[in-house]
Amino acid sequence: MSYDPDKHHRRSIRLKGQDYAEPGTYFVTVCTHERACLFGHVVNGEMHLNDAGEIARRCWEDIPHHFPLVELDVFVIMPNHVHGIIVIRCKGEASDFDGSSNTQIRVADASPLRPRPNGTEPGSLPAIVQNFKSVSTRKINVARGAPGSPVWLRNYYEHIVRNEAELMAIRDYIVGNPSRWDDDEHNPLWLPADR
Q1: What is the value of pTM for the model shown?
Q2: 127 in a domain, yes or no?
Q3: CA distance 151 to 52
Q4: Does a structural domain hold residue 115?
Q5: In this structure, is residue 178 part of a structural domain?
């Protein structure tokens, strides 16, 4: 079947004109296919990873090995999603990242003047997430004996971190996510309070 842009076009949820290959600090959420709880469970506000969760954790931690300009800040593997902060540095910039609150915020340039490549630009946020999802899917499916099974939703959510206060609030949100699992809309057992 040949490509038909009217039939095969998938709407992007990325910001129009945003260059996701530019240095920046991004808060990313990646959810499992059909929000299945594949990675373990939360007990008393603490996440307990199963084998698939450990694979997802190791794959997330390996991102800088595949992308030398990337540094990871805090992240959490939840039963059916991953939250994390990804920092893309400038080429030639020395790494001074230590995971502390002194991380310099890199605000991505939203200039639409740069020509857009066809496909995913190497080293861009979409390439980083795509690599994480691909590698973790393959390893998780080998471990569970389910080759070709979907692990992740096709898309992911991202937020450009604009300043230090926002970074601190997002870090607190990520670290505290397991303690709020009972009230998390991603929890399949969650019921809204107004029901």
Answers
A1: 0.78
A2: yes
A3: 10
A4: no
A5: no
Q: Domain holding 133: CATH number?
A: 3.30.70.1290
- E-strand ranges in the chain read 24-31, 40-43, 46-49, 70-77, 81-88, 157-160
Q: Tell me the pairing of strands 46-49 and 24-31.
A: unpaired
- Examine residue 193 and state whether it is found in any structural domain, yes or no: no
| Cα torsion 176, 96, 93, 166: sign | positive
3 state SS of 180: helix
Distance between CA 62 and CA 102 in Å, rounded? Answer: 23
Give tens-digit pLDDT for 92-126: 555 554 444 445 555 555 444 445 555 668 889 99
How many residues are listed for the chain in this entry? 195
Inter-residue contact 140 to 55 (CB < 8 Å): yes
- Given pLDDT bands bounded at 50, 70 and 90, which one contains residue 15? very low
Alpha carbon 85 to its chain's center: 7
Q: CB-based contacts of 47: which residues, under 8 Å, 6+ apart?
A: 40, 41, 53, 76, 77, 78, 79, 178, 181
Structure tokens at 38: 């594949």
Give the pLDDT confidence of 49-87 residue by residue, as tens digits.
Answer: 999 999 999 999 999 999 999 999 999 999 999 999 999
